[in-house]
Every structure is written in C-alpha cells, then in structure tokens.
Amino acid sequence: MSVTLNQLLEEGTGRLMKAGIQEAEIDARYLLLEAFHTDLTHFLIDRYRTMNETEKSGESIQDFYQMLALREKRIPLQQITGSREFMGLDFFVNEHVLIPRQDTETLVEQILKDYKGRNPRVLDLCTGSGCIAISLARLGGFESVVAADISDEALKVAKRNGEAILGKENITFLLSDLFDAIGSDEAFDVIVSNPPYIPTGVISQLQPEVRDHEPFLALDGKEDGLYFYRKLAAEGRNYLNPGGALYLEIGYDQKDAVSALLREAGFVNIRSWCDAAGLDRVVSGSIEK
C-alpha cells in the first residue's frame, strides 16, 4: 500500500483529536517529523510524494504509528520524543523529570540579566532535568554551579544533559533534599529553585499528561502549595553570601504569599516578574551586604 506524508499527518491528526488532544495537528506533525527524521521544510516539499514500500519507509511509518499510540494514551509529546527545547538548548527528558516549561525561562533570563558580566556561585535546588543550572552555566558562563535534587533518577537525567550540553564538568550534581546535603560552611551568591508548588488537592484536576505522567514528587507542594517556599525562605539565608539572592519560580497566584514568606525570613529588596503571558512567575529577595 502506498501512502504520502500528508495522508499520514491527516490520519494522525484525526486519531489525536478523538483522544481529546487540543493541539492534535501540531503534535501529529512533530511525531511525523521525528519518525521520518526530517524537518518541516522537507516535509512541505515531500508531503504529497507517494512513498515506496521500502524497508526504510516502512520502518518510519511503523515508528510513527507506535509514537501516535503513545500520544493517544496522553503520554506527553516530549517524553515520546525524549527532547525539549529550553533557552535555545536541547534537553533530554523522560518520566522522571518535570518537562521544562517556557515559563521557567523567565527565571533563568532574570538571573542572567542581574549577573551579566559576573561569575556568581550558584545553587539550583529541585534541579530536575538540570535545565536551570545548565542554562545558567552555558549562557551565563557561570563556572561554579551546584545542582541538587532529592531524586536519584532525576539527577541521572540532569547529568546526561550536563554532559551533552556543556561537554565538561563545571556543574556539581548532588543528591539532596533541599539543603540537607549542603555543608553548613557552604555559601552561594545565588540560590535558585523551581520547587513543587501545586496544592495536593489540585493535582487530580490537571491535564492527564501532567497528572498521570510527570513525577508527582515534582508537582506536589503539599496542602497549600507553599510547603517548599517556607523551607527555602527559612533556611536559604543561611547559605547565602552577604548580598546574595534567592530566586524562586512561583504559581501565578502565589506572589503575595511567597513575598511575605521572604520578608518574614529577613530578606530585603523583594522583587517579582511576570512571564510572557503576563502572569506572576518569579519572586526574589536578597540579604543585606
């Protein structure tokens, strides 16, 4: 049986629409390009060309159908392809880490802006895929970065990304529940974290891709979503150099609560920034010099 790329795209789009996926055509196209190891330009050129039943084409078609079946089960696209772009860099992802979001780029971009031309010592807590730590090291040229996570499986992903993107070991990867494995004599200029911040009771209401396939540990901010912010605010200043700053990604409705926690813990110069959608996304505070 002969088939064209366009026919495969139409079939895939229809199947994903029936599965309740909102961006069905976009996802089907991504999977098609991945299966045929091609790009959008070549797809547009070749989409109406009938494919011969060669071994190579047959394998690519089967790969497409297999990935399509996974997406129909609401497995995230990025877990199927094993890849997610963040800050212009390509990160490997799997079921053990939170998929990097564009929202988090706001956090990285602000630190890069605040420390342009400087070389701060950085601690990234709840590092997950390592996207924050690695982006800061690569794009900011920061030479001393510690990336910590409570999950050994997540750290394996972060290390893999560090080796692929940096090509050298200028990041220390550490198994730690927040500050537990950080020495009491350690001090940093920047502590950054995108901690779990979704209230436990809200997780069941999330899209199946997030609720069922991303690590619960990376989502669950306990009862009110503020559990980790309380710990970061209370303990963070003990690991900052004079004048050092704590940068936190937050939920869109958590700015006031997180700012208050930082203020109560003695942080000054409390600032906040919105993401590209105009939603509150980052809060920071510093300690006096």
From TrEMBL:
One of its GO terms (molecular function) is peptide chain release factor N(5)-glutamine methyltransferase activity. Keywords: Methyltransferase, S-adenosyl-L-methionine, Transferase. The gene is prmC. Belongs to the protein N5-glutamine methyltransferase family. PrmC subfamily. S-adenosyl-L-methionine binds at D149, N194. This is Release factor glutamine methyltransferase. Residues 7-82 form the Release factor glutamine methyltransferase N-terminal domain. InterPro entries: DNA_methylase_N6_adenine_CS, HemK-like, N5-glutamine_MTase, PrmC_N, RF_methyltr_PrmC, SAM-dependent_MTases_sf, Small_mtfrase_dom. Methylates the class 1 translation termination release factors RF1/PrfA and RF2/PrfB on the glutamine residue of the universally conserved GGQ motif. Residues 104-197 form the Methyltransferase small domain. It catalyses: L-glutaminyl-[peptide chain release factor] + S-adenosyl-L-methionine = N(5)-methyl-L-glutaminyl-[peptide chain release factor] + S-adenosyl-L-homocysteine + H(+). Substrate binds at N194, P195, P196, Y197. Signal peptide: none annotated. It comes from the Bacteria. It comes from Lacrimispora xylanisolvens. It holds the Pfam family PrmC_N. Its EC number is 2.1.1.297. Transmembrane segments: none annotated. One of its GO terms (biological process) is methylation. The keyword DNA damage does not apply.
